[in-house]
Design brief:
With 241 residues, the protein is an alpha/beta fold. It is 41% helix and 17% strand.
């Protein structure tokens, strides 16, 4: 297989302290990787910083959205930008250093035989999470178990946000038909890919809680995921995914 063009999409909102740290780590992980920062008009100036990083390095790109439009919408914007420019492989990755960039090469290698690669906190029924409060950990574990039970998607870490998708997967899932925008976006994208015949494979990662900034998790996002998985299940049952 010829060398893939790889794009790591990093959505940001108030990540000024973390962005200058994560960008060089991702670039150093693999020489073929490029980064697209999708900023939602961060009040702390993250977007301006992303633009400066893009000016200084041709492997870094920046997109600026008008406001805080949600995680799912940011990823869809980034995926479409990359597909228009001929990238072959797409990563989802948080800006807060919770996802380990050193796992990118292994995920790229695995993607050559598996179009969907999930960086998993819970593969093999292990819990690989550092510095998370017990409450947050239990919500995450229950969320993945709950999503898997309702939707039947065969992934231990159904809610995980460190994922690798081949271009043909994103083309097949009809991004414009995505129903979810928050926490449930990760579940829905995995479900749609699986239902299109792309069997996911999980690779273990160690997830580390952010050191700076604030988590974007909220009660509203969690509640969306609780009811949204049932909507996805019904859409799946009636062949509407």
């Amino acid at each position: 297989m010829s060398e893939d063009r790889v794009l790591v999409v990093i959505p940001t909102y108030n990540e000024r302290d973390n962005l200058p740290r994560i960008v060089p780590m991702v670039l150093d992980s693999h020489p073929g990787v490029e980064i697209l920062v999708v900023d939602d008009n961060s009040p702390d100036g993250t977007g301006l910083l992303a633009a400066a990083l893009a000016r200084d390095n041709p492997r870094v790109h920046a997109l600026h959205r008008e406001g805080k439009g949600g995680l799912g919408a940011a990823y869809i914007t980034g995926f479409k930008w990359g597909m228009e420019r001929g990238y072959d492989l797409f990563f989802e990755m948080d800006a807060d250093l919770s996802h380990p960039p050193e796992r990118i090469p292994a995920m790229i290698q695995l993607s050559r035989s598996h179009p969907v690669v999930v960086g998993s906190r819970y593969v093999g029924r292990r819990v690989n999470v550092v510095n998370w409060p017990v409450t947050r950990l239990l919500i995450s574990i229950f969320g993945s178990v709950y999503a898997r039970a309702v939707t039947r998607v065969p992934v231990m870490d159904a809610t995980g946000g460190f994922n690798c998708w081949r271009r043909e997967v994103l083309e097949a899932v009809s991004l414009d038909r995505m129903q979810s925008n928050g926490y449930a976006f990760q579940i829905e994208l995995k479900l749609r890919a699986w239902r299109k015949g792309f069997e996911p494979v999980e690779i273990p990662i160690v997830f580390t809680e952010r050191e700076t900034g604030h988590s974007k998790m909220s009660k509203r996002i969690v509640l969306e995921a609780v009811w949204k998985v049932w909507k996805l299940r019904l859409l799946d049952l009636f062949g509407r995914l």
